[in-house]
């Protein structure tokens, strides 16, 4: 295992990078547990269910935003960075949660959303009042209309960029006659990180929370904060209405400078080892190698999205295509071997992704548990830090949304309006939302088979999935063969087996479209793990390569499996539908 010196990003020299054998559990508070009957989850609900996390064996709680917000993007539009939204509770509730997390030997990291603020943040309100050329205006990115165009008319925007949430990336401010930039919603104006005052305010806010003893941050779209000041037009794809500006702000010109400054002025000031996770859409392996290089100390790991785009057609997220397993192997394999001394984040699910058992597995009753546990096994035994999104450990599935009125997510609603206005078939657009919409991840956590899945005593902000009567935490904790207990055993294996955290990685069967197979090898102990997963609903036959001594794996001890069977059956080698197996041997 490659050592990580504590220049990255904080703590005394030589302190171990504790996250390398940790597992992170993401809580989306709005949908986790409601204690006051409001229909929206709250901080006390998280505290009350910490024993669920402790029983699972996770090490870190990642808390999605709980700051005051108009909730145009469900809290990722923040109006006050040093407070708790009354929707979720109080600062005292947060402190009690943090203490309870630490009392259980776990850590807590917060979501840091600083590419943009809410348009209701006092800074943006002041910037609007300040007018063109004013010092408060420089906290955001404002530009006049395109030369020769009348401000406020279509096509007069400063450039041709499209928003990632549909429509143009610029909104006209009638009072000043200028436009402001928003890569996401008009309710989320982008901060101007070129302004030193902005950076210092962000760093001071981070220190404020670290002084309360939080253990680090997951930094939302942090690689978008540096923009090319020229803001040039972007290329326009065939059939697209707007240009793609990403080459001007994804890993922009000063991003490494800003993250290095953040390390010096925030993380390096604390004696304890803190965790810095950078969510980085569009990042390449080569760029991530720089971001995660311990000698550079910018972030400890990146959250990348390459494998999340492999089942998308030319139309993007809402143009779904079947996943080719060989594409997944190429992508994950490249990230396994390409980071050098850096480190991976491992995930299938989060608050922005459809449920993985519905997306890459089979959520029908006969195969839900099998495919959920196979997917978990394959993912968690890669090199990196695994993330579990709430309900993933139960095999929670996509919800049966009936009409567009059932959705709440701004991305889905904007997409539906834009596509149907352009003449697309409403039924087809709705089908795509059902399959890939973010609300699939945001249906309430399924605690029991009772009313509203035990999530609330009131009316939930988003409808509970009706399958909670059979898929819920109470039932699974009582069933040793459940998805929950498979996750528990998988997490324990990571904690106990050095080959999982520090071992070399070798992809096997790279061209097989059914079986995902790889080796992990710990050089210090000579231990090897063979990990096998069948990504289909049919029996899959395969041949292990001769150079790994395949016959010595026959009858090798089973470390973990999602179906009964004490020994690896072969040769000839076969896996049952959605079967996962992990075997151990001493390297020959």
Fill in the keyword field for this structure:
588 residues; alpha/beta; 8-stranded parallel β-sheet; 5-stranded antiparallel β-sheet; disordered N terminus
The rough form would be described as globular
Radius of gyration: 24 Å
What strand line-up does the widest sheet have? 9-8-7-3-2-1-13-12
**Main beta sheet:** 8 strands, parallel
Please, what is the average pLDDT?
A: 94
Percent helix among the residues?
Answer: 25-40%
Secondary-structure class: alpha/beta
- Strand % is 5-15%
Distance between the termini: 20 Å
Total number of helical segments?
16
Which consecutive residue ranges, at least 5 long each, have pLDDT under 50?
1-8
Number of strand segments: 20
Question: What can you tell me about this protein's structure?
Answer:
The protein has 588 residues and is α/β, with parallel strands linked by helices. Helix content is 26%, strand content 15%. The chain is built from 16 helices and 20 strands. Strands 9-8-7-3-2-1-13-12 form an eight-stranded parallel β-sheet. Strand 14 (504-508) and strand 15 (515-521) form a beta hairpin. The longest helix has 16 residues, at 196-211. The protein is globular, with a radius of gyration of 24 Å. The two termini are 20 Å apart. 51% of the residues are buried.
